[in-house]
Write a structure and sequence with these properties.
10 strands; about 20% strand; four-stranded mixed sheet; binds adenosine-5'-triphosphate; alpha/beta; about 250 residues; 9 helices; binds magnesium ion; six-stranded parallel sheet
């Protein structure tokens, strides 16, 4: 491959109204699709989060915790996945509308995790799409798990796995805030961290609160935990405010 790919995460906190179940932020989706088209990145992989589509259902049915043997939870697994493909279709439609040849790879049909961790490689498939000039589109999803029956595979884990497996040039994480802060910006005016080293990122991961109310995959703490191995491989990560035009 010519250029090293860039992996872009469109946070669920941007593409949906995270506190209103099943509510997409259509104007943000359309704007981001336009900006991605303008950027003309030669090798791009896009991953989007669950936002108010995936997280509330995953929480309601305890999907991340694994299969409890009950039929009602199986239905919940289907429903969580259905919500995700609904959101995915909106993103895909917006990308195609902007002449971006995106192609969805549904994690639920291609990835089996082991105790919540992605073990298989997906780089061959991604490379085949990139070679053709397609833009692979993945998302955090309800997936089968060899130990737990099923679980939730976060978009953040997918971003890091894809970037590491493909030796990406860079990861760009689009979130609703201005980036990474010393403390959760929702709790008051925290200090924005403009740059940080791997060691500082690890320290921040320990200090950051575990989960936000609407996120079953650890919110910012989960994100940092997933990004550390990518940074260890020398991949630069930028966390940017994707709610503001032109930042991504
Ligand atoms: N130290 C921190 N710096 C920045 N944001 C933080 C921090 N601690 C907590 N947060 C919160 O993390 C949230 C972003 O992470 P979250 O997982 O909720 O969004 P997302 O990853 O975009 O959504 P999804 O998981 O649906 O893709 C922000 O809303 C912010 O309030
Ligand atoms: Mg999240």
């Amino acid at each position: 491959m010519k250029a090293r790919p860039i992996v872009l995460k469109l946070g669920g906190s941007v593409i949906t109204h995270k506190d209103v179940p099943l509510s997409a932020n259509e104007s943000a989706i359309e704007r981001l699709a336009e900006e991605i088209a303008e950027a003309k990145v030669p090798q791009l992989i896009i991953v989007h989060g669950g936002g108010s589509f995936g997280h509330p259902l995953a929480k309601k049915y305890s999907i991340k915790e694994g299969f409890n043997g009950k039929f009602s939870q199986l239905l919940g697994f289907s429903e969580t996945h259905q919500a995700m493909i609904t959101l995915n279709n909106m993103i895909l439609k917006a990308l195609i509308h902007c002449n971006i040849p995106a192609l969805t790879i549904a994690p639920s049909s291609t990835i089996v995790s082991k105790s919540g961790r992605m073990v298989a490689r997906i780089d061959d498939h991604l490379k085949n799409l990139l070679r053709l000039g397609l833009v692979p589109l993945l998302y955090g999803d309800a997936v089968l798990d060899s130990d737990k029956g099923f679980t939730i595979l976060s978009g953040d884990q997918l971003v890091a796995a894809a970037a590491i497996q493909l030796n990406a040039e860079r990861i760009i994480i689009g979130v609703e805030g201005d980036g990474l802060f010393k403390t959760d910006p929702k709790l008051g005016r925290g200090d924005l961290i403009r740059t940080c080293t791997l060691q500082q990122l690890k320290e921040l991961g320990k200090q950051t609160r575990k989960t936000t109310a609407h996120d079953v995959t650890g919110g910012m703490q989960g994100k940092i935990a997933e990004l550390v191995p990518a940074v260890e491989k020398g991949i630069t990560v930028a966390i940017v405010n994707a709610c503001k035009p032109q930042r991504v």
